[in-house]
Amino acid sequence: MRIGVDLGGSKIEIIVLGDDGDVLLRERVATPQGDYAATLAAVAGLVVAAAEKVGAGDTATPIGIGIPGAESRVTGLVKNANSTCLIGRPLKRDLEELLRREVRIANDANCFALSEAVDGAGAGASVVFGVILGTGVGGGIVIDGKVLTGANAIAGEWGHNPMPGEHHKDVCYCGRKGCIELFLSGPGMGADHRRSVGKLAGADFQAIEIAGHAANGDTQCETTLQRYEARLARALAQVINILDPDVIVLGGGLSNMDRLYQNVPRLWGEHIFSDRVATRLLKHRHGDSSGVRGAAWLWN
Where are the domains of the chain? Predict the structure, then answer.
């Protein structure tokens, strides 16, 4: 039995998995906005209540936690978190003191990648690159069933590399210009559409609306999606040229556009340094449960 927690910006989710991966319990609560102490209390409260419900109250039950950031290898404090109240905090230490047991913490994209590598779309593959395409853009690397964290705890953070072949005047929240996230996140797609259509009707469409209108024959939305697919192909081609994964698994809200899985591999070949490309682009198997499942599998 193992416990996983997904500490997100808007919700905190907990899952209890049996040794065979079956879900024994799954619950979620709203994340206290901007309040570190309340966030600690919410996580601890969920864990204690869930453990009591399934009889996992002993301190031997492993707990993994996915966070929207990373733990500094130098200080042990949280860094690179878009939930800014976590930045500079000793989250692991504080939770271990509250729960009186060891916890393992990993980036939420790493947890997604691990979930899909263990028993998801990438099961059986040696090298899996997991991609989050949502409000932000993240990535995680799993090799032979283990998360690759890296010397700086930033392995897989492709969203904050420059988009190849593009320039962007806006500054990303990370302080850099031209980040892949500015182009491939949901808000990034919406902003690109607005720049393209100007004051015409539909300028304020969000990503899900753009996809829906494109499917119904809207040529402006279709053009926006084609730009998105070309950019995603170039960005993933860089990953393939460096990491050469067996499988790339997409997650996040934009991953539900089924057209990506046909169009992007058709486009990425011209950017990849190989006579053929065997890497498979796959849709997630566990949906929005992957992050919390991966947190539980941190003890695998």
Answer: 2-112+289-299, 122-284
- 106 burial (CB, 10 Å; 0-12 / 13-18 / 19+) is buried
Query: Contact, 133 vs 117, CB < 8 A?
Result: no
- Take residue 129 and report the two structure tokens written for it: 């690159």
Strand extents, DSSP E, the chain = 2-7, 11-17, 23-30, 63-67, 70-71, 78-79, 103-107, 127-133, 137-143, 146-147, 247-251, 280-283
Kindly state the DSSP code that residue 171 receives in the 8-state scheme.
Answer: B
Radius of gyration over alpha carbons of the chain, in Å? 19
The per-residue pLDDT for range 193-231, each reduced to its tens digit, is 999 988 777 789 999 999 999 999 999 999 999 999 999
The CATH code of the domain at 122-284 is 3.30.420.40
DSSP-derived letter for residue 289 is G
Q: Which residues contact 45 (CB under 8 A, 6 or more apart)?
A: none
* CATH number, span 2-112+289-299: 3.30.420.40
- Ramachandran assignment for 114, one of left (phi > 0), alpha (psi -120 to 50 degrees), beta (any other): alpha
Q: What is the pLDDT of residues 138-153, one digit of tens each?
A: 999 999 999 999 999 9
How much is the pTM?
0.91
Do 122-284 and 2-112+289-299 have the same topology in CATH?
yes
